Amino acid sequence: MPEMSRDLHSLPKAILFDWDNTLVDTWGVIHESMNVTLKHMGQNQWTIEETRKNVRKALREAFPELFGDRWEEARDVFYKCFHAIHLERLEVKTGASQLLEYLARKKIFLGVVSNKSGRSLRSEVRYLGWDKYFRSLVGASDAARDKPARDPVDLALCSSGISAGREVWFVGDTDVDIQCAHVSGCVSVLISQSPFEEGGPKDFGAEMTFTSLEGFMALVSRRL
Prior knowledge:
With about 220 residues, the protein is an alpha/beta fold. It folds into 2 domains: about 5-25 and about 90-220, HAD superfamily/HAD-like (Rossmann fold), CATH 3.40.50.1000; about 25-85, DNA polymerase, domain 1 (Orthogonal Bundle), CATH 1.10.150. It has 9 helices and 10 strands. It has a 6-stranded parallel beta sheet, with helices on both faces. The longest helix has 15 residues, at about 70-85. It is globular, with a radius of gyration of 17 Å.
């Protein structure tokens, strides 16, 4: 873990979370929906490792690169499959419920900034009953630009009276999340089960790195 600067020794006023594979495990749903789409579009299907590597950007940015002029057709195929299975196969990450409940009790402003469509994000949050924890939910296309741009961070915080900066922590699981934290001036927190690879660290320059939400919870609880 990188050495923490002094302003990381107290808790922030706000914490913004990524959604997919930070608080919930959705790789199986994303993988199946992508392969249905790739097959429909006449392309080779991906392994789960390829899905994990390739799915980073919001769909409105990624699909034109993958499918060219037919990207809207591919989008419709993807969402048809995704919406048919995503709620019933939603899996909560270990420690997520306890962490959110604890932070909410401590009156920390909580929000989500995701590259999942806003419609899907909000339906999943409601399905889990987690709308009681979050005061803002920003998905893909809700802001002018998606992660890693700072626009969704500013939108997520606009009702809080808190500006993006060192009093806001951004918690996610990919390089896109860490980049978003950096460009918005927030403290970057990486949650990854494999933050290190052969040849050196792969933490994307995160200021704090944990292998689980439980590890993050242990840090947070020591400060309150």
